[in-house]
What we know:
The chain has twelve helices and 20 strands. It starts with a strand and ends in a 17-residue tail after the last strand.
Amino acid sequence: MSKTYHFIGIKGSGMSALALMLHQMGHKVQGSDVEKYYFTQRGLEQAGIPILPFDEKNITEDVELIAGNAFREDNNVEVAYAIKNGYSFKRYHEFLGHFMDQFTSFGVAGAHGKTSTTGLLSHVMKNITDTSYLIGDGTGRGSANAQYFVFESDEYERHFMPYHPAYSIITNIDFDHPDYFTSIDDVFSAFDDYAKQVQKGLFVYGEDPHLRKITANAPIYYYGFEENDDFIATDIVRTTTGSNFKVKHDGQILGEFHVPAYGRHNILNATAVIGNLYVAGFDMDLVAEHLKTFSGVKRRFTEKIISGTVVIDDFAHHPTEIIATLDAARQKYPSKEIVAIFQPHTFTRTIALLDEFAEALSDAFGRMYASEEENRKIHTGRKLKSVKRVPDVKMSTYNYKPAMKRNLPYQRRNF
């Protein structure tokens, strides 16, 4: 009799998606978490997956344990009980590393653009052939008969090191997560180690100087806009309905493509997907057909109209991502004024990249609204304005209490 998978912290976006995927594949699944409502639990409840309170009674011989990365012996009764009584458990990324061995796996790594690119690759592949996938926005799909598996490969705390995918895209390398990484060299070292675990083909952005230094055992293919790249996006036409372009490889045009997404970065994401699927043997006509119907992923350039005003919500929490989001907004709404409203995400990132945030936000049209971190005595908006030429900073004060990593398990609910 097969055991039931028990997820400690099942409401995390990665954990809930993995739980749903295993359930869809016919496995027995349950999990535990806090009582507070999280949007991720809706899908679990609709699937009939039990969500239990944290309790050491949930830990029995009949369950296989998967523990969220945020939960430890000192902050979770189930983890503490399991360790005390000799029950083994795997972390999310450890389980995933073993799980993907049964598929031909496609990973997507990078400092920025992982979720969008994973979503695009998953969308195209699932419409061509039976494909399971996990996306960083908390969505996923499981099929017992799938040959392929697409997943987001997260560099934080080197969580991607248990992964040995057949193929992987690396969108870029940039300094982020200063609570863990000590420098850009430390970040590069992590990605370089991950690259060596890719088995059949590695697809990296060719204009990134760090990625040009990456070494791997598998063939490396560069994608981008330059003639020295292996897959070149060319004849680009950016419109208010998306971007049209061709992709050239070895002097030949692979096809004409349209992606209903905005910004230079989404052309690159699509080119990476096209290059990967070409090398993996997929039909380029089918790839082009399904690129056209991609509707995006959660929390990335999500639009609502409120009283006639277009409001774009984007999880752009790094200067590079802010620049990309503003570029996308200008493409779709070239005649409109752009007003940037910025809420800092994590104390360590805001302080470490203060100059870069100021530079990125200086390009916003109209007014920029920044938040104050009152409890830390750090006036982010004023500091941004004093560092660079940030226009018309409006201070928006709120009661911000940053979650310290060592104490609160919900600073990162992703996994």
